[in-house]
């Protein structure tokens, strides 16, 4: 995504104009493209919050956005039947490419 567009989106979601977004603001931001539970948004904030204040600034948000985009691309690559869900075989193959090993038991 164009960094300028991403920054405009960040600024639109930063409703309190703090320069940071919290989990509630992130949830509103992501609700445009998918349904993320608040606890999921809190976990994502925690993953990218470099200062430990429970919020992310634009730089941290950009990292989160790249992370989500990479996972979306990976999902689309493994959803071979384009069902919008990974069946067991697709999920196993996806996880194996990430270094996870499974037995046939």
Structure described in brief:
Helices cover about 60% and strands about 0% of the residues.
Compute the gyration radius: what is it?
A: 16 Å
Strand content: under 5%
In one word, what is the shape?
elongated
Task: Please state the average pLDDT score.
Answer: 88
Give the helices and strands as they follow along the chain: HHHHH
- Count every beta strand, where a strand is a DSSP E run of 2 or more residues: 0
Give the low-confidence spans.
none
Instruction: Calculate the terminal CA-CA distance, rounded to whole Å.
Output: 42 Å
Structural class: mainly alpha
Helicity range of the residues? 55-70%
Number of helices: 5
Q: Which sheet architecture does the biggest sheet show?
A: none
Keywords:
elongated; single chain; mainly alpha; 105 residues
Task: Describe the fold and architecture.
Helix 3 packs across helix 4. The radius of gyration is 16 Å and the shape is elongated. With 105 residues, the chain is mainly alpha-helical. The chain starts with a helix and ends in an 8-residue tail after the last helix. It is built from five helices and no strands. It has helices at residues 3-13, 23-30, 38-48, 58-78, 88-97.
Topology of helices and strands:
Blueprint: H1 3-13, H2 23-30, H3 38-48, H4 58-78, H5 88-97
